[in-house]
Amino acid sequence: MADSRQAPTWELDELSHAGHEHLDATYVAGYDQKAQTDWSEDVAELQALGIGESSTVVDLGAGTGTFAEAIAPHVQRVVAVDVSEAMVAKMRERGIEAVQAGFLTYEHKCDLPDAVMTRNALHHLPDFWKALALSRIAQMLRPGGVLLLRDLVFSFAPGEARSSIQRWLDSAPTDPTRGWTSAQLAEHLRMEHSTFTWLLEPMLERAGFEVAARLLSNDGIYAAYTCVRV
Length: 230
Ligand SMILES: C[S@@+](CC[C@H](N)C(=O)[O-])C[C@H]1O[C@@H](n2cnc3c(N)ncnc32)[C@H](O)[C@@H]1O
Description:
Blueprint: H1 25-35, H2 40-48, E1 56-60, H3 66-71, E2 77-82, H4 85-93, E3 98-100, E4 115-119, H5 127-140, E5 146-152, H6 161-170, H7 182-191, H8 197-207, E6 209-216, E7 222-229
Parallel strand pairs: 1-2, 1-4, 2-3, 4-5
Antiparallel strand pairs: 5-7, 6-7
Helix pairs in contact: 5-8
This protein binds S-adenosylmethionine (SAM).
């Protein structure tokens, strides 16, 4: 008889889709300098939405934990989740409550999170799995809870894809320690699963979110969504 505790044979292996570089301790060590992320606007947005000293926040695909560090002084609890052992080790070095798990496996314990952040991570999942992951996030949040979703999500028309992508690659830095190079962006397109806004937005709604705000970058490459669990 099949063991009901085992993942089904068709379950996605999140680790093998996580991006080989994210599993590499040398890449992880240089990640913050490469990304140079300023989280102040995201922290301010969460505060404006009522996230404060009694709140619990979960960051999914948290990387090295810089968002967790930025939000921690303003909330009661932050849990930073990443599928990569190297990323989780880095976060634990920093004193962050870090859990090694994926979008499809993380089980939140003890309280109902008030907010979930996920930035530049959901694109690691193909669309079918994105829909399941978003549904899990909605189930995890308290009613009225907030999801901030930031990712490479395309808002150019399919017919403009080649020119839009070429402009994006042409604007990439050449120094890989300071950002993502043209070759790395090309690999993102070949290997990962960025999708169109008009595919992702119905997934958010189906999962049980209302999209309260949406910011699209002028080049059609990035999207920032503020979603409320209905
Ligand atoms: C580009 S980094 C972004 C890290 C961080 N959110 C940031 O904005 O700096 C993507 C992160 O997602 C993680 N990741 C990839 N697939 C994942 C999955 N299925 N579940 C959880 N984390 C995942 C990777 O290990 C990596 O740390």
